[in-house]
Amino acid sequence: MSLITLVIVLVVVGVVLWLINSYIPMQATIKKILNVVVVIAVILWLLSAFGVIGSLDTIRIGN
C-alpha cells in the first residue's frame, strides 16, 4: 500500500467524520463514542498497514 493511498484514506475518513459531527444531530455522548470507535479503527488499520501488528484477518471475536 502506497503512502499516497494512506494519506487519501486518512483525509476521507477525517472529512466523513467531520461531516457527521457537523451536520447530523446527535447527542454529545454518541458523538464521542463514534469518534473513539473511528479513531481506534484507524489506529488499528494503520498499525496493520505498517506491519506493526499482524493482519487484521486473524483477529477473532468470540468462538
The major pleated sheet works out as: none
Secondary structure tally, helices: 2
Q: Poorly predicted ranges (pLDDT <50, ≥5 residues)?
A: none
Extended strand count: 0
Specify the oligomeric state.
single chain
* Rg on CA atoms, Å: 14 Å
Q: What does this molecule look like?
A:
With 63 residues, this protein is mostly helical. The chain has one domain (3-58). The chain has two helices and no strands. The longest helix is centred in the middle third of the chain and has 22 residues, at 28-49.
List the helices and strands and how they pair.
Blueprint: H1 3-23, H2 28-49
Keywords:
flat, 63 residues, mainly alpha, 2 helices
Can you describe this structure in just a few lines?
This protein has helices at 3-23, 28-49. With 63 residues, it is mostly helical.
